[in-house]
Amino acid sequence: MKKKKTIGTLFLVSGLTLYLLLNAPESAYAMHIMEGFLPFGWAVFWWAAFLPFFILGLRALRKITKETPELKIMLGLAGAFTFVLSALKIPSVTGSSSHPTGTGLGAVMFGPLPMSVLGSIVLLFQALLLAHGGLTTLGANAFSMAVAGPFVGYMVYKGMMKSTGKQKLSIFTAAALADLSTYIMTSLQLALAFPAEQGGVAASLLKFGGIFAVTQIPLAISEGLLTVLIWNWLQAYSSEELSLLQRKMKGAREL
User: Fold this and answer.
1) DSSP structure class, residue 28
2) Alpha carbon 36 to chain centroid distance?
3) Most buried residue among 40, 138, 185, 206 by CB atoms closer than 10 A?
4) Residues whose CB falls within 8 Å of the CB of residue 222, separated by 6 or more in sequence, listed in order
């Protein structure tokens, strides 16, 4: 039975990866900030802000893989889910585009710190292979998608579980708000780097945020629903690994 569940999880990861390869966008003008777009000072600032989370995330991942190597496949699933969803470009009515992030699932499963590593690896591969984002702006993109989004998603999940006890609703809300918070952070990053002549950072924030709001809100809802579906799939086919993961996360909070 355990072998069948592992094979099923591998099948899901492979299927997500295959979907990306068959549906990779031809051009990338997504919400990832493009190479060279940020002024040098801001690019350095966001790298400096991101790196401490990355280092802590490496420590968290090392601990997980050392103490429970059985969860490596689940880490792979979280990374593949983020890779596929964040690479999908959805055209916006403004002539730009939006995309899901996929970080909510990993944040719920492992907490926010491991996602700082998984998310940044995803962004690095997308920058190199798909022209999504850039290397100089990787710090800014990673801070918004791999730090801000997972932290918001994780805190929302824990808060709702404590107040309502409804897991599926908590997962849906966590994934949706992890998506939205990523775009709010990216809009703030752009607003700080390019304040409006009239109204300054606040006016610029409203402008950048408004560009993606029309498409991003329904995208966040869709991502929340998809994340719940994946969770249901894990409960059906990888219940042992999922139970082990939940016990580990509960034990870590009690320490």
Assistant:
1) -
2) 23
3) 138
4) 100
Q: Give CA–CA dist 239/255, Å, rounded.
A: 24
Structure confidence at residue 15 (pLDDT): 52
Which string of b and e fits 91-117 if b means at least 16 CB within 10 Å? Answer: ebeeeebbbbbbbbbbbbbbbbbbbbb
At 98 the three-state DSSP class reads strand
**Does the predicted TM-score (pTM) go above 0.85?**
no
The predicted pLDDT at position 216 comes to 81
How far lies 250's CA from each of 149, 166, 185, 241, in Å?
21, 16, 29, 14
- DSSP H or E segment with residue 80: helix 72-87
Q: Are 90 and 148 in contact (CB under 8 A)?
A: no
Question: For position 248, what pLDDT does the model report?
Answer: 67
Secondary structure (3-state) at 136: coil
How far apart CA 141 and CA 27 sit, in angstroms, is 18
Q: Which residues in the chain show pLDDT less than 50? A: 2-3, 6-7, 10, 17-30, 93-96, 254-255
Q: Would you state the pLDDT for residue 133?
A: 80
Please report which helix (H) or strand (E) contains residue 65, including its range. Answer: helix 40-67
